[in-house]
Design brief:
Helix content is 17%, strand content 35%. With 325 residues, the protein is α+β, with helices and mostly antiparallel strands. The longest helix is centred in the middle third of the chain and has 15 residues.
Length: 325
Amino acid sequence: MEHFYELIGKRKLNCFSTIKNELNFDNTKNYLFDLSHLGILKIEGEKAQEFLQGQLTCNLLDVDFKNMRKGAQCNLKGRVLALIDIFKTKENELNLILPLDLIPETESSLAKTAMLSRVKISKVSNYKLFGFYLNNKENIIPFDLKLSNSPYSVISGESYYCYCLSQNLYVFIVMENEVNKLTDNFINKSQYNGSFAWHYLNLKQNKINIYPESRGLFLPHNLNLHTTGYINFNKGCYKGQEIIARMHYRSKPKYELKLFEFKSDEPIYIGQKLINIEDNQIIGEIVDFCPLMDNKFLIAGSVLFNIPLMVILEGHKLPVELKIL
């Protein structure tokens, strides 16, 4: 299929049509999405679970053949390096799904302690990733599955794994030799979209991304990760745990993640500051965004509570009016 790219930061997300068509969903139809911007790291060994327990914010004891988890990798200062989906395929084997542009640094940082834990880290190349948007149980469903709407639940077959992100968003991990069997019907019915449209649907549900340029920039509480299942405060030690726990129990958060829409003819970028036009003080930063039509943007911002609706963005000449979603 012909495709082109939209840039979110430096990350390329593909489209198979215009933005208008990609973001126009028929509520009677289901949609499949190409997620070729994502990759898989496999962690294997008798101590794979124990090893990751000391690296990620979620409780790895909750990950089994029927349940996945979402977690964060943080640095020693408690700042988020990557957001990761974790699922299990075999005993002593866990898989991490994350953007391809974060895999080299993630693999490198994990490898520093992996040898001491006697675990092996490798890239998975014989599976492809797809998103699925369920609107209608009578419409096309991959492999004719009866999908659970329980978040983080996992179902699997001989050639695929599938987990539920939310009530109507799913991720499929499919063996390469079964990909055409999955995609052909959606392509023929014009219900196959790119990763850009998938990004839009996720962002609308407050599911943000970390990018190379935002790696190590944000604390988990400033992204609402403490309210969305990414962090387990009872699991024990992991990188950044002391700072994250101190912030949770001893500090009052000053920032929260909020969704906005606004219109601007000027460029938007990850980490861009939002500035109060009255006193010129910084009141937030752009965490993630999605360009819409007519110079409009959907923005996830880490912002102070009760921010004003008229702000100016760093480097911009004109103020913008925020519409809170």
